[in-house]
Amino acid sequence: MTKTSKISRRSTLLGLGAGASALAAGGVLPGSLGFAQAQSSAPIKIGFQKHATGIGAAYGRWYDVATNAAAARINEMGGINGRPVEIITEDDATDPGRGAEVLEKFANQHEVDVAFGTLFSHVVIGSAPRAGELKLPYFVVSEGHHVASGMLNRYTLQPGITDVKSQVISMAPFVADNLGKKVTMIYPDFAFGHDHRDFFSQAIEAQGGEVVAKIAIPPTETTFTRYFPSIPRETEVIYHVMVGPAVLTFVKEMGEFFGPSRPEIFGFIDSLEAVDIQSPGLEFLEGTYFWEGMPRYKQANESEAASAYRAAVGVNDSGAAIDDPANVATYAHMFGCWETMHIIKAGMEAADYQGPADRSKLIEAVEAMTDMPESIEHPQGEKVFNGKTHQTFGKQYISKVGDGRLDVVHTASIEDGLYEDEVDYTTQSF
Amino acid sequence: MDFGPHLMLASIEGAVISAILVLTAMGLSIVFGVMRVVNVAHGEFFMLGAVFAWAVSTLIGGHAGFGFVAALLIVPVLVGCIAAGVDQLILKRIDYDVDRTIVATIGVLYIVQQSTLMLYGPEARPVAPPFNTRLALPWFEFGADGFQMIWPWGLSVTTYKLFVIIAAISVLGMLWFVLTRTKIGLIMRATQQDREMAQAFGVPVNRVYSWVFGLGAGLAALGAVLVVPIQQAHYLMGGDPLLLAFIVVIIGGLGSLPGTVIAAVLIGMSDGIISVFFSPTLAKIIATFLVAMVLVFRPQGLMGRVAA
């Protein structure tokens, strides 16, 4: 180097010293000031594992909105056990390896009370074993069946969103009765897609239908026309559930492939979350059906709680951000973050949660929950939580695309989606 | 689907992939040929092309055609200027040293990608094609009633996809003309053959490098503008084109333009056909296997010359 650097040893030391004293003054360093605050007024820290980058980034951004809106509401109401809630966000890059590291960071560096908020199933499956080892309650909002299947552990719970198996079972009767009995499934080739494949195949057979072809697509695929020739000619219904940034291409190319002679099409809105249904190329979706966890477009009979929630997360009647109508929400899923936050609050209050030593009490308190009536805490609708399987069950919606919007045509009840327990986590020790 | 129509559909898909690939790989190949720089950030210039195409067509509004034509004219130049800036700011200062340019362009890759994430966001945004009519394609077969024309289910192409193929061929034609029939091309070829000798004859080598780096990025951006009405603009879309472009350039011979075209068509068509009949994963396996074989048995590539 020819020029001397402007950062000298002396200025570095000075800066470090100033920084350290600032930290001490702020009560971050353990010292005389650190104890001045009573422990009971320290914030409850919730570690939010966010898909800020990677293929889940659009979901991550809206999960963030719902989470922070819920935290703001909880703090307005006086926090949890009189203590404010603080959300600590870490990016997991929608990557399972990184997800496990984030949990470690939460437990050891941020010393959070609980971890929360993961959607993508491979990240949940990659992170949950670490949560169990760290004895950190891990509230996921993933819809995957891995919680209720018994694959994970007592520290992992999914109280805010129904799992795929239940969603799929509750859809099958509608598909078989109204659309057709010969189904071709198109799904992403990882755990979430396999859940759809396995459970829908069983469910449609129980309705007297059959799956005539199963087309698995790698999650990073960008073009799809090449997959469509494998759709058998006898297909009456296409069942599609795709995730990731290329979903719009998928739906568009499917339209171009079929042209005017398409079969009935039933999809999971996952294929179009965060995508405007009026985007160019999606015209052909008119008259097709979608599962929705929560109706994106405001319905005439929308409950007061659902409308209040819609306002709290800053979403307009068409399911996009109020301040930017081009920014479409992941509305069918993000309610799960809002509801889970309120369940964490209810659980901590029931357990009289004081700190990390009470983590197992918190899990027992959540396991003891059963009925969750529709309310502002549960705007998507009433739910039944199964403490043994750590899984919640709620109503599901089927909407039809018409005039460039989605309107609910069928509501599946909680009973439609119930299935036998596959695990009893309460028998596991902490 | 029957074999014949199926093969036809696969070939059309393959031709579209080849068309985009040939533009992207050509950019990479020219940059390597003239500057001996392995541009790892090439895929990000492709991505920038797509993102800017979205921005331009959204700003202009009105009929989709206006926005698209504006993007086609403005975006490659804009991305080219950014790339030329990268050349002046970074590559020139590390003397185009082979190892250091690789590391530096990896840095550029992440800077461009993450800035796009911060400024543009994580979602995939569509650009409306200027025209997009679905053309059902006929198929001929000898049935019970003799020779007849049928319209198989699903056998179709869109006018826009045909346009992409034609556009790529015309851009290639123009590029060939510029490189072989104009003074700019002569200067570029002179720089490629012997940098010091060219400089001795008064060729402003540093400026040529900036132009070439800009041209390479501009070609990638042009490919992206063409592809963005088919796929959407997304901040991670640069990865696949980079990998495929490298495969093409290695098979064709680094720096060899005819080799690049042949390899792009080969890889694009095989990707289309193999992935329709077997699986897309198998297509990728075969392509990377080909690269390995070429590196083992013909390291200079199909059309590459052995370094003197």
From TrEMBL, chain A:
Residues 43-404 form the Leucine-binding protein domain. Residues 1-24 form the signal peptide. It comes from Ruegeria conchae. PROSITE patterns: TAT. Keywords: Amino-acid transport, Signal, Transport. Belongs to the leucine-binding protein family. Gene3D superfamilies: 3.40.50.2300. GO terms for biological process: amino acid transport. The keyword Signal applies. This is Amino acid/amide ABC transporter substrate-binding protein (HAAT family). It comes from the Bacteria. The keyword Magnesium does not apply.
TrEMBL record, chain B:
GO terms for biological process: amino acid transport. CDD domains: TM_PBP1_LivH_like (cd06582). It is found in: Cell membrane. The keyword Lyase does not apply. Keywords: Amino-acid transport, Cell membrane, Membrane, Transmembrane, Transmembrane helix, Transport. It is a multi-pass membrane protein. Its main location: membrane. The chain crosses the membrane at residues 15-38, 45-62, 68-90, 102-121, 162-179, 208-230, 242-267, 273-297. GO terms for molecular function: transmembrane transporter activity. InterPro entries: ABC_transp_permease, BCAA_transport_permease. Pfam families: BPD_transp_2 (PF02653). GO terms for cellular component: plasma membrane. Belongs to the binding-protein-dependent transport system permease family. LivHM subfamily. This is Amino acid/amide ABC transporter membrane protein 1 (HAAT family). It comes from Ruegeria conchae.
